[in-house]
Amino acid sequence: MRAPRPRRHLVVAAGAALAITGLITGCTAGDTGTNTEPTNNSDNEASGDRVVIGFSGPAADHGWLGAINSAAIAEAAKYPDIDLRVAEGTNDANLQISQIETFINDGVDAIVLLPTDGAALTDVAIRAMEAGIPVINVDREFSSTFAARVTVLGDNYGMGVSAGTYICEQFGGTDAVVAEVAGIDSLPLTQDRSRGFADALDDCGLEVNNRVAADFTVAGGEAVTSQLLAAAPHIDALWNHDDDQGIGVLAALDAAGRNEMLMVGGAGSKNAMDAIKADDGVLKATIIYPSTQAADGIRLARLVVQGKSLGDLVEVEVPNRIVLNAPVVTKENVDKYLPTAFAS
């Protein structure tokens, strides 16, 4: 077996459509789960051997996670050769571990897993890999490269960069007051978003003057934004990390009669895009965090098990890491992104 390779930090610049790094070869995780020799096959839509896929994700307690689950199920339904087995969504790491153990015992062909806690689910994912079941890790990373055959991620750092770059384009060279309503501060994804935001602002001489953290819920967004507004009598630009909690952020702004600012959202909900398109309020842009990640995981699991590659690549195996883009949605391009927007 090869020794584990050192983990590299991956930064995807705003504007990149897809980042794909490092193929696993030899005796690493990439060897598990294929039942045929890999071929560079562009006809990936053609039906192949039956593939039993186990899917487990957190409870759909807000719109983005609901869209993750529904998109995965809808994608599997497109392929007659996929038998999808869906575990009940949960925010209990121990229950999710037991779900994966059931998938292992049932001998599924692949597992698509959005872990409620990446570190907590790492060991059971490694056990699946050791059992010859390729794991497709979605959104929240495991703490070992040996826990997944493929990892599909949104670009959290890139979200911050995109938001900060957009605000720099509007206010660069000024002394604008910038505020930030983050998500759950203990999560690495929130930390990455905030770091990307600060880095992008620094490039144009701005900084975050006022910051609060919510919990990705409407109630949480409204409560912390009310606190923020009390502490900041004037704000020029505000970035809210998540469009679900953004409903509460906007409610707090409305209740306080605060409309002096430009607001940028995050994730890409339909209600946010509708408001951007109407262009009659403070919300002028949102940053995409794709709710298609688990659907992508389903398609990739099918390709891995059937020994296929991504049709547009010369490489004959599915990559081991895919990072999706974090574009800025404004009134000028909103129609392009509305079809994949999720309902809050």
Structural account:
The protein contains ten helices and 13 strands. The protein is of the alpha/beta class and 344 residues long. It folds into two domains: 169 residues, Rossmann fold (3-Layer(aba) Sandwich), CATH 3.40.50.2300; 144 residues, 3-Layer(aba) Sandwich (Rossmann fold), CATH 3.40.50. The chain has a seven-stranded mixed sheet, with helices on both faces. Helix 1 runs parallel beside helix 9. The N terminus is likely disordered.
Between the first and last Cα atoms, what is the distance in angstroms?
Answer: 46 Å
Low-confidence stretches: 1-36
User: What sort of overall outline do the alpha carbons produce when their principal axes are compared?
Assistant: elongated
- Give the helix level as a range of percent: 25-40%
The structural domain count equals 2
Range of strand content: 15-25%
Note the total helix count: 10
Give the oligomeric state: single chain
Q: What is the name of the CATH architecture of the largest domain?
A: 3-Layer(aba) Sandwich
- What is the number of E strands? 13
Biggest sheet features = 7 strands, mixed
Question: Which fold name is given in CATH as the topology of the largest domain?
Answer: Rossmann fold
| SSE succession | EEHEHEHEEHEHEHEHEHEHEEH
Question: For the record, what CATH class of the largest domain applies?
Answer: Alpha Beta
Query: What Rg do the Cα atoms give?
Result: 21 Å
Class per helix and strand makeup: alpha/beta
> By CATH's scheme, which homologous superfamily of the largest domain applies?
Response regulator
- Widest β-sheet, arrangement of strands: 1-12-6-5-4-2-3
Provide the residue-averaged pLDDT: 89
